[in-house]
UniProtKB/TrEMBL annotation:
The gene is LOC116956560. Keywords: Coiled coil, Repeat, RNA-binding. Residues 1-11 have a biased composition (Basic residues). Residues 56-65 have a biased composition (Low complexity). It is found in: Nucleus speckle. GO terms for molecular function: RNA binding. This is Splicing factor, proline- and glutamine-rich-like. GO terms for cellular component: nuclear speck. InterPro entries: NOPS, Nucleotide-bd_a/b_plait_sf, RBD_domain_sf, RRM_dom. Residues 12-32, 66-76 have a biased composition (Gly residues). Residues 441-450 have a biased composition (Polar residues).
Length: 475
């Protein structure tokens, strides 16, 4: 289907067969196909159309296992495995498989090329995660497993003739790649990846360094999807994204994809301007000529532009240095202000704590006072209830016309005793109303052995039964 141009053999050289799978005097050593002719045509299955037979895939690309050729002595099988599902070569520890960096653009395809024919071109380079062919427009995209396989396919298939059409193979533009500027010298690949992984899955994040390994302040981040890249771009443009303690925010912009292969004369369109400019060969302008005069004007314009750029860069650099000094001073002042605010906050907390403690003490004191007042009130109520009970008790006896017991009436027992001592039967000094000096006995006190209410223990009931009966008749 395609023809290989003359290329440098990547496999082993002939002769004695150098080790590592590069042996083989007359064979296709090293596992890489080496075209013997300058232009050979193949069909979509890899069959050599110019010689009339021979399976291209099985005879020339022995699965990239690196087996040595048949003529070399001492050649051994290579320990490096070729491309394919079992072991992709060149896969770095930080590289992700099937990333957009492994995506190729294939142009100038025959208009009737289908997806199966398109995949057959890249069959020897392992599995493909994405394959798209635009029928009628003559282009397609494919994503291989690793970057090394993609570079290998690009180097071998670019310029290949497929049915009288020369293929153009280029790396596809990475739609999720962004350029990051204003990076601090302390920013590393790991920190850059950690900072931008919040917007989506990353495929790669690197800080660009110079030939001495020092950071240039620029970096590249590559997202797995275009949506994540757009989210990061919009978010960093709308606000200030700081990666370190430095207050200089990073600037994010889309990464411009540049093709390092350049442009060939055969790919340039031959319009009238092309013919007009290419009619003269490269030369140096001679002094005093028309060409020299206007060439010097162009040089003067370029020099003026360079001087203005240098002036602007110098002004920007001086302004940046002044801003850094202002930032340092403002940072110190800001820290002092934060310390003052923290001190004021602590003092305010201490004041509130003292107020709270005083308030708690005042509440406890008021509670104690209320408790004491409540206790006094209860004692007063208790005394009042006792007095009311005594009053009701006295009123109850007064309603029935019965004297209170001698224990309740002061001087009653004393009057009774004095009456017996004096020997008189009249009113006793201890009695109220000058009543006779005897007690009234109710029916429940009929037992002469039980001491009677209001009677001293040393005296029994009166013997005068007539008076006793008369008293009972009153009740």
């Amino acid at each position: 289907m395609f023809a290989n141009r003359n290329r440098k053999r990547r496999g082993g050289s002939g002769g004695g067969g150098s080790g590592g799978g590069s042996g083989g005097g007359g064979g296709s050593g090293g596992g890489f196909y080496e075209a013997s002719g300058s232009s050979r045509n193949y069909d979509t299955d890899g069959n050599d159309l110019s010689s009339g037979g021979g399976n291209f895939s099985s005879s020339s690309y022995s699965n990239f296992q690196g087996s040595g050729g048949g003529g070399g002595g001492g050649g051994s099988s290579s320990s490096q495995r070729g491309p394919g599902p079992s072991g992709p070569p060149g896969l770095r520890a930080t590289e992700r498989e099937f990333s957009q960096r492994c995506r190729l653009f294939v142009g100038n395809l025959p208009s009737d090329t289908g997806e199966a024919d398109f995949l057959a071109l890249f069959r020897r380079y392992g599995d493909a995660a994405e394959a798209f062919v635009s029928k009628g427009k003559g282009f397609g995209f494919i994503r291989l497993r690793t970057r090394m396989l993609a570079e290998m396919a690009k180097a071998e298939l670019d310029g290949t003739i497929v049915r009288s059409r020369e293929l153009r193979v280029r790396f596809a533009t990475h739609s999720g790649a962004l350029r990051v500027r204003n990076l601090s010298p302390q920013v590393t690949n790991e920190l850059l990846e950690e900072a931008f992984s919040v917007f989506g899955q990353l495929e790669r994040a690197i800080v660009i360094v110079d030939d001495r390994g020092r950071s240039t302040g620029r970096g590249i981040v590559e997202f797995a999807s275009k949506q994540s890249a757009k989210k990061a771009l919009d978010r960093c443009r709308e606000s200030n994204y700081l990666l370190t303690s430095s207050l200089r925010p990073v600037l994010v912009e889309p990464l411009e994809h540049l093709d390092e292969d350049g442009i060939l004369d055969k790919h340039l369109q031959k319009h009238p301007q092309y013919s007009k400019e290419r009619e003269c060969a490269p030369r140096f302008a001679q002094p005093g000529t028309f060409e020299y005069e206007y060439a010097m004007r162009w040089k003067a314009l370029e020099q003026m532009e360079r001087q203005q750029k240098e002036t602007v860069e110098l002004n920007v650099r001086e302004a940046a240095e002044r801003l850094e000094l202002d930032v340092e001073g403002a940072h110190v002042e800001h820290q002092a202000m934060l310390m003052r605010q923290d001190l004021m906050r602590r003092e305010e907390e201490l004041r509130r704590f003292e107020e709270m403690r005083n308030s708690e003490a005042q509440k406890r004191k008021m509670m104690e006072m209320r408790y004491e007042e409540e206790r006094k009130r209860r004692e007063e109520e208790l005394l009042k209830k006792q007095k009311e009970q005594e009053e009701r008790f006295r009123a109850k006896f007064a309603e029935h016309g019965v004297q209170q017991p001698r224990e309740q009436v002061p001087g009653m027992n004393q009057g009774r005793q004095e009456g017996f001592v004096g020997g008189g039967g009249g009113g006793l000094p201890g009695n109220h109303g000058n009543q006779p000096g005897f007690n009234i006995n109710f029916g429940q006190f009929a037992n002469p052995q039980v001491p009677q209410m209001g009677v001293n223990p040393g005296f029994g009931p009166r013997a005068d039964s007539t008076e006793f009966e008369a008293k009972r008749a009153r009740f």
